[in-house]
Design a protein that fits this description.
globular; binds ligand F0G; alpha/beta; six-stranded mixed sheet; 13 strands; about 425 residues; 15 helices
Length: about 425
Amino acid sequence: MSTELVCFNPACKKRYGIDEVLYQCPACDALLEVGNDFSSLRAEHLSQLWLRRRQSREALDVSGVWRYREMLPFVSSPAHIVTLREGNTPLLDAPRAAEYGGLGRLQLKHQGYNPSGSFKDNGMTAGVAQARKLGMHRVACVSTGNTSASMAAYAAAGGLQPIIFIPHGNIAYGKLAQALEYGALTIQVEANFDEILALVRALAEKLGIYLLNSINPFRIEGQKTIVIEMLDQRAWTPPDWIVLPGGNLGNVSAFGKALRELKQIGLIDRIPKLAVVQAEGSAPFYDLFQRSDRSQIHNVAKPETLATAIRIGAPVSWEKARFEVESSGGCVERVTEQEIADAKAIIGRCGIGCEPASAASLAGIRKLTAAGVIHRADDVVAVLTGHLLKDPDYVYRYHTGKLEAPGGVKLTSTFGNEPVVLPNDPEKISAFLEKRN
Ligand code: F0G
């Protein structure tokens, strides 16, 4: 078997050429995934090769995605690749967050350290490589902000025209600012993410624009490297749990696929449980897991959350995600706006920080340990998906007691840290500092 596109629907499994411009199976409409033949790969050889590449100065070896290029064999020529040295994100110990989450130890894989400040860069470098391989000139995405920032950066760096569609008034300013700065043609539509995605899927086909949402199977291939790099950092010792926020559910699909492939090659001997955390007002995947019949997701028509990155009511990758979570033995949790806000402040106090959606990971861990699903002694990695500075407005409001949940309920600034205004008077300033010592 060579690399090809395979329908994800187990009842269909039709195969298509790797260079066909397809996002869904023409026969049954299900999503496609890249089918890789890894039968000739040897675990020991790969782990040594990837370790050696850390000493190289070559751009593709320095990239935390392309260092693992044996796992992304769809790229036929390095000339197609645009790298901004993505990946290479740290795995950080965070004792205070561990304590808050009810754990003895917690490691945070911080994808906010990426070039555009979110995990999207791992996938985007792969999606843009495929766009260039196909000879596409224009690329588009619908986004709650991070995908558009990332796509704009990689398209600009690769000489493609980025066109982004975003929900009017509902993306964090840090993300919009990035898209504008990277030169994306930016279209704000008065609709929510799910409505715009349906619109753009139809438009892309009509106008011959290459779609780089997470329905694009090559983006999923790139996002596999988040987990590959994390396991490399842990010397191929899998944790008990990997916890991550869920919106459109592309990332958990990518994690599950990576874990399956790594196990098949023999780089790991077991698959960690995947725990997906959603915001209470945008939790169709959580609802699905509450039911015994999980054959159909019920979309949330008007999703709400201040964690705008995951304000999604009709997740396109839900079937892939269901498969990966179930087959890992994992679970799905939901958290309130207050829980997200407080967990985020705790991650900040670790000297780390993240954007609101990312903090759903820690908020979810706290609930899952309280419920006895995750145990204090478990080995847990939480993925922080985006950088603190993506949404400074949220941060300022929280610390100054002005953060309101959708619907207008005021949130409590449990760990608030309001700035103090003092006169230009050394006596008063020193008296204040002595009092606060
Ligand atoms: N965290 C952040 C910071 C995100 O930007 C997203 C998704 C997610 C988590 C959820 O990941 O969709 O793979 O389940 N943001 C997309 C965007 C939808 O347009 O930037 P997912």
